[in-house]
Amino acid sequence: MSVNHQPRPAVSVTTNACKLCTPLGACLAFRGIEGTVPLLHGSQGCSTYIRRYIISHFKEPIDVASSNFSESSAIFGGGVNLATALQNVTAQYHPELIAVASTCLSETIGDDVPLFIRQYRREHPERPPEIIHVSTPSYRGTHMDGFHAAVRAAVDELAEAGAPERRINLFPGLVSPADLRHLKEIMADFGVDYTLLPDYSETLDGEIWQEYQKIAPGGTPLAAIRRTGRAMASFEFSGTIAAEHSTGNLLKERFGISYLQTAMPIGVRACDQFFTKLAEVSGNPIPDCYRKERGRLVDSYVDGHKYIFGKRAVLYGEEDLVVSLAGFLAEIGVIPVLCASGGESGRLAEAVQAAAPEVADRITVRDGADFMDIAELAEKLQPDLIVGNSKGYPLARKLQIPLIRVGFPIHDRLGGQRLLHLGYRGTQALFDRIVNAVIERQQDASPVGYSYM
Amino acid sequence: MVKVLEERKGQIYRKGSEPYAMECGKTSLAGSVSQRACVFCGSRVVLYPIADAIHLVHGPVGCAAYTWDIRGALSSGPELHRLSFSTDLREIEVIHGGEKKLYQSLVELIDRYQPRAAFVYSTCIIGIIGDDVGAVCKRVSAEKGIPVLPVHSEGFKGTKKDGYRAACEALLQLIGTGPAEGIQPHSINILGDFNLAGEVWMIREYYEKMGIQVVATITGDGRVDQIRRAHGAALNLVQCSGSMNHLAKMLKEKYGTPYLQVSYFGIEDMAEALYQVARFFNDTAMMRRTEELVRDEIAAVYPQLLEYRKALTGKKAAIYVGGAFKAFSLVKALRILGMQTAVVGSQTGSSEDYQQLRDLCDEGTVIVDDSNPLELAGFLKEKGVDLFIGGVKERPIAYKMGIGFCDHNHERKIALAGFVGMLNFAREVHGTVCSPIWKLVPRYSCCGGGVADVG
Predict the structure, then answer these.
(1) Is the pLDDT of residue A201 over 60?
(2) What is the pLDDT of residue A233?
(3) A175 CA to chain B: closest CA distance, Å?
(4) Least crowded by CB within 10 Å, which of A39, A71, A153, B52?
């Protein structure tokens, strides 16, 4: 019993990509660090498109600076532009940190960004902001690789050794602000100090303001990132990240901090694993409220199982999310007949297999996918529902089946940033949405229109 | 007063305080967080609505992914424009060159979709690795028998305006390659309307009612074969001047076709756009039909506009849009609704554009070129506006401060052109400014409840 891993057929063109570029992922992650302005080293368009795209999901201001390459910077190098940009960002925003991410352009001409930053620091000895850098050539990997690389770069640059603390590092990956808030609540309920990185729970889902804030309040404090080097353990939600890209692994190698790399806690099984491990690491029992949430979740599984048993779902998105959702769907009796991602870690098939063993032989896994592939496979597989971000809407419309919106981007609905899908509570929300979507579809298709279940 | 970077001070002008002087047309200042996009963006937005052509973005995946179906440009037939094709370059191609992948991608797409033409957009990285896109296009064009046109839109080679230019150059390659038979003397091309929410359909109907043949709509609801015979039209009408003036000029030079600048936003400008054409053809019967049309259309919307005007009179607005020409119409349209424009700016205006804005606006109006979020937020607060009109990137600036916002960019899905469009615009402005929710935002309490009342 193993998943059917179908590599993408030999076509050259990508049609309707199921991924975004690496600098976008880096910008998202950097928005989760307190007092930070992301700066893209490249053309103006990259920062503008990325801002526009992120706004469509989060509906919050997202200022991303650019070093504004011109033709001459493309020829002679972007060092001068970067220095100007650092200076102007400092003058306008007074940030604590400027986080520089490279683009395909600056990478290809071979700009030595770390060198430029060292020069800038030398020339500006008057307390400049902290400056960190991550290499994100957009032709290598997806936005998730950029996201993980940015988190790793921040820790790489800032983490300090010191006396061990009773503290947990939590690297959640690309989840919603609502998920981040829930994780913070869980950590608080366990009574344990933590560093959650990134934390855009406020910066990308904040309150309305009286005065315009240059940098949205919130985010992981720099001090907390520095303390990641003294924690007792790290949790990294990822089913697919390789050791050389893993922040948990970096901290393990440099400071000897143990880490658990695990799928996102979605579904009873994955949540049990997370909560059990948290109890173990923190030395505190699982708080009663979560036992009750778990109990209610299982109770609702019983109430709803008939409506969804054997339903076939097409599932796509970031690899880590796909792995986690596949595990959850398998657990409730829905078969994720297609698990697709634009990512190409090479680990998706194996991770899906591990997460959804009971239905593995009925799953097709496609990595490096675009929406043309997904649509073609979906038409053959005849699914009952689609689970993924807004980009599956044209497919759902064509197949006339429900789309359960999860992940990023959700730009055709309000509240994508407030969707909760982690923990027992998040799983509950997701479970109810899935069951109700199936029921609604049955009602709509019914000639009678029964209103009692 | 809003704090502004020293290098940007010349790009901001306050009417009344000083003699008119405006710096513009500059590349954006590094680190200023400009709202502008790039050369690629300019080309892509202009050519995108041509619905029976393949639009292939040659480069890494981002540029294509961020422009997948974002425009509201509708087609009455094929919908190839709504798919996002990319050569999705990887490291290996960056090292060895992407020509082979480009060739294969084009062949696959043309075999699959049988398009009438293909446009290939060069992104930043293509300019650096030096792929000979022109040669690949030529080869595929010869093999497949359709026009395959390179669009030189490397992002770093200037501003969005340079992208408009690159798009116009590509269009010029197409125009003149089709038969011009069967075109009447009273005929036009509509340039620079992108058929957002079906706008070009309305405009086309107005002109047809006047007795005019519309040869090509460039590029809204555009078709390759129409565009190929556009040189046969007697007159070109340029709606979005920022993007299409260049093409109109080139067509005048090459084919002697005269052109007029028009605007379809607001009832004043819309009516004038029709009269201009009737005057051009100097035909009494056509002028009479035009007068009737304008009268009927205005009569149909005016009573409702007056209702909105009652509720909106005295409210203040800010405008920050891509092209300055659009801003002129917006200032006038807001005036019809009784509203005053306190801040107005654009990403790409020229010195003459800003001078015209200055003449149009009231004393004290802030006029700004290539602004950024911090400046815009500052101006909104300083002027205490009730409404901000802009694009997606401007929206959260307004909303965060508890200020109403209307989209007026190429991504919108509501028709704002034409007489009906004015009514849609008024309805949206009204629903925005007069919503009771503003009473709950902090700004309301801090300015003593001075914001909107429900009208």
Answers:
(1) yes
(2) 98
(3) 20
(4) A71
CB B31 within 8 A of CB A87: yes
> Each residue of B89-115: pLDDT tens digit?
999 999 999 999 999 999 999 999 999
The model carries a pTM of 0.96
Quick one: B284 and B337 in the same domain? Answer: no
Asked if B254 and B369 sit in the same domain, the reply is no
Using CA coordinates, name the residue in chain A closest to B6: A88
Out of B30, B128, B155, the one facing A67 most closely (by C-beta) is B30
Does some domain include residue B124? yes
Looking at domain A22-140, does it have CATH number 2.60.120.620? Answer: no
pLDDT at position A360 is 96
What's the topology of domain A167-282? Rossmann fold (3.40.50)
**In this model, does residue B425 exceed pLDDT 70?**
yes
Contact in structure between A232 and A212 (CB atoms under 8 Å): no
User: Which of B295, B326, B342 is the C-terminal boundary of a domain?
Assistant: B295
Residue B320 confidence (pLDDT): 97
Check the CA dihedral A315-A318-A319-A324 and report its sign: negative
The amino acid at residue B11 is: Q
Are B62 and A138 inside 8 Å of each other by CB? yes
C-alpha R_g of chain A: 22
Residue B322's CATH number: 3.40.50.1980
- Mark which residues 356-415 of A lie under 8 Å from B by CB: 391
How many Å apart are CA A344 and CA A137, to the nearest integer?
Answer: 15
In tens, the pLDDT along A298-322 reads 999 999 999 999 999 999 999 999 9
Q: Which residues does chain B have within 8 Å of residue A27's beta carbon, measured at their own beta carbons?
A: none
Angle formed at CA B317 by CA B314 and CA B318, multiple of 5 degrees:
160
Instruction: Mark yes or no for CB contact B62/A24 under 8 Å.
Output: yes
**Do the domains A4-13+288-445 and A167-282 sit in the same CATH topology, yes or no?**
yes
Is the model's pLDDT at A363 over the cut of 90? yes
**Does B441 contact A104 at a Cβ distance shorter than 8 Å?**
no
Residues B214 and B241 both lie in one domain:
yes
Of B125, B153, B174, the residue at which a domain comes to its end is B174
Chain B from 156 to 195: CB within 8 A of any A CB? 156-159
How large a percentage of chain A has pLDDT more than 90? 95
Chain B positions in Cβ-Cβ contact with residue A408 (cut-off 8 Å): none
Domain ranges of chain A: 4-13+288-445, 22-140, 167-282
Q: Please give the Cα distance from B424 to B408 (Å, whole number).
A: 12
Chain A CB contacts of B93 below 8 Å: 139
Whether the predicted pLDDT of B450 surpasses 60: no
| Whether residues B194 and B225 fall in one domain | yes
B410 is a domain residue? yes
Q: Residue B451 above 70 pLDDT?
A: no
* Residue B180 to residue B182: CA distance in whole angstroms: 7
Domain residue limits at B105: 39-174
Largest CA distance in chain B: 71
Residues A13, B104: C-beta atoms closer than 8 Å: yes
Are B84 and B129 found together in one domain?
yes
Confidence of residue B1 (pLDDT cuts 50, 70, 90): low
pLDDT at B273: 97
- Show the tokens assigned to B339: 């509203």
Number of domains in chain B: 3
Residue of B nearest to A84 (CA): B30
B373–chain A Cβ distance below 8 A for any pair: yes
* Domain A4-13+288-445 part of CATH 2.40.50.630: no
Exposure string for B95-119, b = 16+ CB within 10 A, e = fewer: eebbbebbbbbbbebbeebebbbbb
The string of pLDDT tens digits covering residues A386-407 is: 999 999 999 999 999 999 999 9
ipTM: 0.96
The DSSP result for B4-16, as a single string, is --GGGGGGEEETT
Mean pLDDT across B85-91: 97
pLDDT recorded at residue B446: 61
